[in-house]
Specification:
It is a single chain. By secondary structure, the chain is an alpha/beta fold. The chain has 4 domains: 151 residues, no CATH class; 224 residues, FAD/NAD(P)-binding domain (3-Layer(bba) Sandwich), CATH 3.50.50; 116 residues, FAD/NAD(P)-binding domain, CATH 3.50.50.60; 104 residues, Enolase-like, domain 1 (2-Layer Sandwich), CATH 3.30.390.30. Helix content is 30%, strand content 21%. It has 20 helices and 26 strands. The strands form 6 sheets. Strands 6, 7, 8, 9, 10, 11 and 21 form a 7-stranded mixed β-sheet that branches. It has a 5-stranded antiparallel β-sheet with strand order 3-2-1-5-4. The protein has a 5-stranded antiparallel β-sheet with strand order 22-23-26-25-24, sandwiched between helices. It is globular and about 70 Å long.
């Protein structure tokens, strides 16, 4: 639908300021038009550029002559000669009308304008100046957008992505390459401690990237200790300037600068691909409409034909523990601290917990991990035990079978933590400078208003239920990444899923994301653990212990020999079916550069590699990965699996 309104010289700023002058009114124009669902100004002299043809409805409206309802049709470069400009008659000059002195409310404007659009009602009882004063509220009224969209049958965007993390950005950029009109809506709610960051999501800002860089900083410390064995004259003891973790810290500043460069890079990429970016918190008004709220409280309504939810997750706080929220931090805060964390207690046994504890220990900080049950739940437990054993030998302390009950702040500003030891049945306390919670993550859905539009979630986890095509319970609403039920919480899977979804929506593709146990990953602890495929426990559960064969070996990296480093936990194993072909079900590796090792083998396992095929593969000598091509001792045999010789 289209509205014709009279041209008034005083309204020229309306066009130039709101619409950036791109569809402004020329002095020769007799009328100007407002197309609400597209929020564009069109004039008589602009119709040829907009490639539209207007045709007056045969049935007259009750609205005044200077406000007429028309229908837009494609085609034609000029207006039909039969059409006459919609000039107001002299006796009904809008400037001569008497209007209320107070500006109308957005609700009043909405109600009256909706009536006019529907073909009923009389003249708008407001001066154009009053409309101008209320322009932002009127244009931002979600009801108006929904009314106009219902009448026009069109949405503002082909795709709107809620969430500017890895999966959401990948989906948006991929969709834009198909020539679609795409927008991304992203907003970072500050953590309870006030930490906030830029575009890019968890991975870029408070996850994989800063974690890996600080892991590297810790590894360099170990390498400096090894260096003297290779003839380097390095003063001992080697220490890190972690006590200058504040703004002057070389490491912290370098890491944060790199993260900020990635934030900027994502903004530039969106602009280059003509993807509209909204820095706003979004919530559903209806299945096609998102109401965005800026930090300043300004509302903007966006409509889209397809909507993808990719808001990811945030760390959980154990709010049932006194003082947990007031005094604790999470991984959302650790990488942006302005002072050294000092003596640190990390609560939890997830990969986030062990990775953070590992690099804090490597940087020379007194670090303790408190774990209630098993480490690295969901991973192979033999490998998980080796990881924690190495961390203990590396200097990280562990409080096993313990859980905290309260956190109190002392006069010295240190935090006193009280916990229970379930093995001993005792209650113990100690004080720390920092308490970090790493007890899991929760989907960031609280403000999305999902229940309004009927998007179903898992009542226990809060995650969105999706099918194999990432579709939710509502047509044209999809979800990817950590927010979805039953998906790996990994950046690469979110990116792949987002791209494939965009191709299915706009590129005539039918390819689905394959989550079937072949996703490789690595835990970046001091001695890295990489894996792909099934754990030994999962393989036994799926196929039975009599139907699988496990090949394994303890090895010593060549780099460890001269430096005389302990290699007790350097271990690898391959889980295979016992059938004739011996298809590889899983590969697990603990050692230096585990991620680089596993990434290469992941391709073969994805393609259905078998044990005999791997044994025919020539290894690269001398490397740690080479040892995988020489695995020949089975657990079933009971033989010593220690590798000897070159």
């Amino acid at each position: 639908m289209f509205l014709f309104l009279p041209k008034r010289p005083s309204l020229n700023p309306f066009c130039s300021s709101i619409w950036g002058g791109r569809e402004g009114i020329s002095q020769s124009s007799q009328v100007w038009g407002f197309f609400p669902s597209k929020r564009r100004i069109l004039t008589q002299t602009r119709f040829s550029n907009a490639a539209v043809r207007a045709r007056l409805l045969k049935k007259p409206l009750a609205a005044p002559q200077w406000l007429q309802k028309t229908e837009l049709r494609a085609g034609g470069s000029r207006l039909p000669s039969a059409l006459r400009p919609c000039r107001p008659p002299p006796s009904r000059d809008p400037a001569a009308l008497t209007h209320p002195t107070s500006p109308p409310s957005a609700q009043a404007l909405l109600g009256h304008l909706a009536g006019v659009l529907a073909g009923r009602g009389g003249p708008l009882p407001y001066s154009m100046a009053a409309l101008w004063r209320r322009r932002e509220r009127l244009l931002g009224a979600s009801g108006l957008c929904r009314t106009v969209r219902a009448l026009s049958g069109k949405n503002e965007y082909d795709l709107l992505v809620i969430g500017g993390g890895s999966g959401g950005l990948a989906c948006a950029k991929e969709a834009a390459q198909f020539g679609r009109k795409v927008a991304v809506l992203d907003y970072v709610e500050p953590s309870p401690q006030g930490t906030k960051w830029g575009l890019g999501g968890t991975c870029v800002n408070v996850g994989c990237i800063p974690k890996k860089l600080m892991h590297q900083a810790a590894l360099l410390g170990s390498a400096l200790k090894d260096a003297q064995h290779y003839g380097w004259n390095i003063a001992q003891p080697v220490h890190h300037t972690c006590f200058l973790f504040c703004d002057r810290s070389v490491m912290a500043q370098a890491v944060q600068n790199y993260v900020k460069s990635l934030n900027w890079g994502h903004r530039v990429q969106l602009q280059d691909k003509k993807v509209k970016y909204f820095n706003m918190k979004g919530s559903f008004s209806d299945p096609h409409t998102i109401c965005g709220l800026t930090k300043a409280g300004k509302e903007t309504v966006v409509t889209a034909e397809n909507i993808v939810i990719a808001t990811g997750g945030r760390p959980k706080y154990p709010t049932h523990i006194a003082g947990a929220l007031e005094y604790g931090i999470t991984s959302d805060d650790l990488f942006w601290l302005k002072e050294s964390p000092g003596k640190t207690l990390v609560v939890g046994a997830s990969y986030v917990s062990l990775e953070c504890a590992g690099f804090l220990t490597g940087l020379g900080l007194d670090t303790t991990v408190m774990m209630r049950s098993i480490p690295l739940r969901g991973f192979d437990q033999q490998m998980a035990s080796l990881v924690t054993e190495h961390m203990e030998s590396y200097g990280t302390k562990f409080l096993k079978k313990c859980f905290p009950t309260k956190v109190e702040k002392l006069e010295s500003n240190r935090l006193q933590v009280t916990w229970k030891n379930t093995d001993l049945g005792t209650e113990e306390t100690d004080s720390f400078n920092t308490v970090m919670w790493a007890v899991g993550r929760a989907p960031d859905t609280e403000t999305l208003n999902l229940e309004t539009v009927g998007v179903k979630t898992n009542s226990e986890t809060g995650k969105i239920i999706v099918d194999a095509s990432e579709a939710t319970s509502v047509p044209h609403i999809y979800a990817v990444g950590d927010i979805t039920e039953g998906r790996p919480e990994l950046t690469p899977t979110a990116i792949a899923a987002g791209k494939l979804l965009a191709r299915r929506l706009f590129g005539e593709s039918s390819e689905l994301m394959d989550y079937d146990n072949q996703v490789p990953t690595t835990v970046f602890t001091p001695l890295e653990y990489g894996c792909v495929g099934l754990s030994e426990e999962a393989a036994v559960q799926c196929y039975g212990s009599d139907n699988i064969e496990v090949y394994h070996a303890y090895y010593k990296p060549l780099e460890f020999t001269v430096a005389e480093r302990d290699a007790t936990q350097c271990y690898m194993k391959m889980v295979c079916l016992r059938e004739r072909e011996q298809r590889i079900l899983g590969l697990h590796f603990i050692g230096p550069n585990a991620g680089e090792v596993i990434q290469g083998f992941a391709l073969g396992i994805k393609c259905g590699a078998t044990y005999p095929q791997l044994m025919k593969t020539i290894g690269i000598h001398p490397t740690c990965a080479e040892e995988i091509t020489k695995l020949h001792i089975t657990k079933r045999s009971g033989l010593d699996a220690t590798v000897t010789g070159c």
